[in-house]
Design a protein that fits this description.
Elements lengths: L1 H23 L7 E5 L15 E9 L9 E9 L11 E4 L10 H8 L9 E4 L13 H11 L5 H21 L9 H14 L5 E6 L1 H12 L4 E7 L12 H18 L1 H6 L3 H11 L5 E4 L7 E4 L1 H11 L9 H9 L3 H15 L4 H12 L19 H12 L19 E6 L7 H10 L3 E6 L6 H4 L1 H12 L8 H8 L8 E3 L2 H11 L3 H26 L8 H35 L6 E3 L3 H23 L6 H23 L6
Parallel strand pairs: 4-5, 4-6, 6-7, 7-10, 10-11
Antiparallel strand pairs: 1-2, 2-3, 3-5, 8-9, 12-13
Length: 654
Amino acid sequence: MKKINLFFAILFTATTLFGQTNFSDTSFFSPTLEFTDCFLEDCSPFLDDSRIQYAYLTVPEDYEHPEGRKLRLAVLIIKSNSENPLRDPVIHLSGGPGGRALYNDYINLFRHHPFGMNRDIILMDFRGIGLSEPAFCPELQEEMVKVFMLNQTPEEATAITIKHFEACFERLRAEGINLNMYNTAMVVKDLEMLRMAMDIEQWNLWGISYGTRVAQTYLRDFPGPVRCAIMDSPVPMGYPMWGEQLKYYRNSLAAFFNSCKENPECNKVFPELEERFYHAMEFLKENPLVFDNEKALDGLAALNFHNMHVLIQQMLYMPAFYPFIPWLIRGIEERDTEIFKNMLPEFEKKLYTISDAMWVTVLKYDNGLILSDFETSPTDPLHHALNYIENIIHMVRRIDYIIQDTLETRAVISDIPSLIFSGSFDPITPPFYGLVLKESLKQSFLYIFPGRGHGLTRNTECAKNIALDFLNNPYSEPEADCIKEMEANPIPWVTKMYYNPRIATFAQQMLVQKKWNLVGGPVILFLSFIVSIIAALINLFRKKKKPNNPQIITRNIIAWLSALVAIMLLTGLVWFIMKTGNEHGPLLLMGLVKDATPIIYISFIVLAGTLLSWVWYIRALKHSSTGGKLLYGLMNVSLLWLSVLIFQFQLFPN
């Protein structure tokens, strides 16, 4: 028995050392880092930020054949706010696999992150992703967005998805791209090249989701330069996670609904929420929500059973959505397409921040040997609920031209100081993943955050503060009293609001798109109101032989009062839209904060005032001057325009 154990010990050690030697020998290739101008699709938000630097790292596609194809990898450096920054920067490792790091929303988040107080933050699009080379089938992402919006059975969606993937991989292979070179081990090699090119002696790893797998691989292959590692929403190496996503989604839903049930106010306003949710989703199987969408194949987007579940799963990533998911379920029950018409473009943007082609390629190499066999029965209420992810796994199983390495199936053992964060509602990397990872990271601290989802160092102030404390002193357990405070009220439920999903459409068209038919009316109303007041004041102080006709006076007063009330309504709406957006973000998709309700009652006064104003405008026509007819005509047309908007966007109390 001892001989057998000794044999396996020698075999394991030899394999591990072989792996480290294979990935750590960089002496044969000298990395180059070329600083350049902004290469983002939209540079305008960052033109005045001198802290941001842009560069390209040149690396070989195949490190064993450095004379072959070269790749330019996009790198962005956010310099520290400090005049004397510490010399150990933070390298952020993005999620996915296939997730971009270099897009505006992400960059804007990180340039204000507390990690940047005393350290530089480094971002890089990994090989084959985003702004880095090669372009890994950007057309595939376009097709995946279209597929998502089709009303198809799971079987139909699987067939068309596999067709698009196979076309993508056939093209890549025809172009001579070696798909065996696009995996986590090669990403780690690129990262080590970046460290060498920047002449960094030590740095800190900050991985979120799949980025934690990158961090573990780096700890395995290049432990020397790592000062500490932050593992946010971890993916433990050696565990067969892919294929089990439906299990974790179910657990996340159960925890969410149970949290509402245990909260007296939420349970009172949304009784039997879990049962209503499953009933509403089942109804979508035969009755999808259909609405206009310019990117859909036939101009109509359809949200059916499995597409809607993917949307809900994505919302469970972000705690900002939690208080409003009950209202969203109400929207599904009432078949209110306005909510989803406004929500879908944001989801489309998210789909474009990930490369599904790279997702499949990396998964095949990293996890192909340990895919889970978890399945649900056809009678399960969540059967095929996450068909989009199921199709990724289907494609991974089909590929037979990517070489796999058993080294990637093993847990990484490390004694480098590490911090592990998990969210109790995380639908993709559940809390027990943190427990699994803690077993192999011997000097690690694990924290589970109540009522939180995925990517805590992005969206939870308590997690940011704990992580910053750890980053400054990785050998001491950070102070975490803020977690105890969160336990008392993990979700700030919103049980009262002015529910009207058309508010988001109004805000989008008026304040963002600035459509002339929405912006023009208020401008004309305001200008005509001001000019009429000025004209009345001039007439008041001008010496005239006979006073104005009583009908003219009545017309003017009614028009002024109606216009003033209309301006109050518009101003109040804009103010509460801004207040809701700033304080409760996603709530705007469903309406406004409850405090807005009194403003909405003004709509009735505007409608009555518009009717009276038109009556007196017509009655005073024969007594009015040409200027008066034009000025008050414009004012009344504007009032009529606003009355139409009140009905169009249903600006009535509920």
